[in-house]
Amino acid sequence: MFKAITTSRVWRYLAIAILLAGGLGVAYWGAGKNSNPVGIPANVSYYHWANSYTDDPARLHIYAPTRLYLKLLDIGYREQSLSVNPTAVRSPPSVPVIPVVFLDNDALKYAEMETVYQQILTHIPPTQYQHLQVDCDWTEQTRDDYFAFLERLRADYPHLSVTLRLHQVKYAQRTGVPPAERAVLMYYNMSDIRDPDTLNYILDNAVGQRYLQNFAEYPLPLDLALPLYRQTRVIRQGRLVQLVNSAEVNADKTERLKDNHYRVTQGHYWQDYYLYPDDELRVDTVDLPLLQQAAQALTAVMQPDEVIFYALNDAVRFDPQELAAIAARFSQRSKSP
Predict the structure, then answer these.
(1) How far apart are CA 100 and CA 107, in angstroms?
(2) For FRET with 238, which of 63, 101, 286, 296 sits at 20 to 30 Å CA-CA?
(3) What domains does the chain contain, in order, with CATH numbers?
(4) Contact indicator for 286, 230 with CB cutoff of 8 Å
(5) Whose CA is closest to 187, among 233, 237, 234, 223?
(6) Burial environment of residue 293 by CB neighbours within 10 A (0 to 12, 13 to 18, 19 or more)
(7) pLDDT band at 36, cuts 50/70/90?
(8) pLDDT category, 40, cuts 50, 70, 90?
(9) Cα angle for residues 285, 291, 294 (degrees, 5° grid)
(10) What's residue 288's pLDDT?
(11) In what order do the strands lie in the sheet with 231-236?
(12) What are the helix (H) ranges across the chain?
């Protein structure tokens, strides 16, 4: 049986909905591909990527995002069934937001897309939101279904954006261009995560440099997403067996082989995962010089209106002025608030 919803709870949910929707009316999405740069630094925004959201006015004041890209829905396909996980919004955001849906490629392959469509409309109602971003690692095999699905969403959300990976810009003729208003280039996770010799899966500028082609010809306006997070790859007998969202290894039970590369010398639990002797730990991390190098390379090929850092919770390792200086390297192609 359903529990009765009290009046106070009704107003609370209404307040959340109004604030989430109201922040989306910013005059930004009309920027066209061919408008001229005006020399204004790119806006700074952040992703929030967690299963729950609690507003943190103090942190938002410090990092001063233009807007927050808030993952509100995670849609996957696990154990032969559709998996739908909405984000629990525990307090309304105090900055404008753009709702984001993560859509797993397996859901495109195996799920009933009518059900996926209805889930999005239920959790992110078009009556409250005109903007939507879809994050999906689509492939050439799922491209047609994904593009058709975007066309359907576009009818409900007039301002639709998508995420792109580097190869989808360089090889756009082969991979196709999503039917969206604009796109965000995810300049990270560009190497082979399964290769134990990958130096830095999160951000490797030498790898990224190989893909900086076709930007001038790409037909959608491109914004930029840069990483702030860290992780550790656990490699056992040459195979990736676990990803751990931490970079702080146990120095007493590991030995350092070289930069960001460790061998486990004594079995132990770490971050709720058991490490065996001779497991290798590859720590992937991002620092300010890496971000500066990325920005230097990218300024030659793109002029994003917005630089979106992934993610807000990881920004604590950085000075907000240093991150703003990264964005200031880019000139906007249109004026934004």
Answers:
(1) 16
(2) 286
(3) 7-229+290-328 (3.20.20.80), 230-285 (no CATH)
(4) yes
(5) 223
(6) middle
(7) very low
(8) confident
(9) 115
(10) 98
(11) 239-244, 231-236, 280-284, 261-264, 254-258
(12) 7-22, 57-63, 105-110, 113-123, 143-156, 166-170, 172-175, 205-209, 288-298, 320-328
Token pair for 2: 């359903």
- Name the E strands within the chain: 43-48, 52-53, 68-78, 81-86, 88-89, 97-103, 131-135, 159-164, 182-186, 222-227, 231-236, 239-244, 254-258, 261-264, 268-270, 273-275, 280-284, 306-310
The length of the chain in residues reads: 337
Task: Residue 166: name the closest of 298, 44, 37 by CA.
Answer: 298
Q: Which amino acid is at 235?
A: I
Residues 6+ apart with CB under 8 A from 234: 240, 241, 242, 243, 244, 273, 275, 279, 280, 281
User: For the segment 42-54, what is each residue's pLDDT rounded down to a tens digit?
Assistant: 999 999 999 999 9
What is the Cα–Cα distance from 34 to 20, expressed in whole angstroms? 30
pLDDT tens digits for range 166-188: 999 999 999 999 999 999 999 99
* Banded pLDDT at 5 (limits 50, 70, 90): very low
The structure tokens listed for 227 are: 């990483």
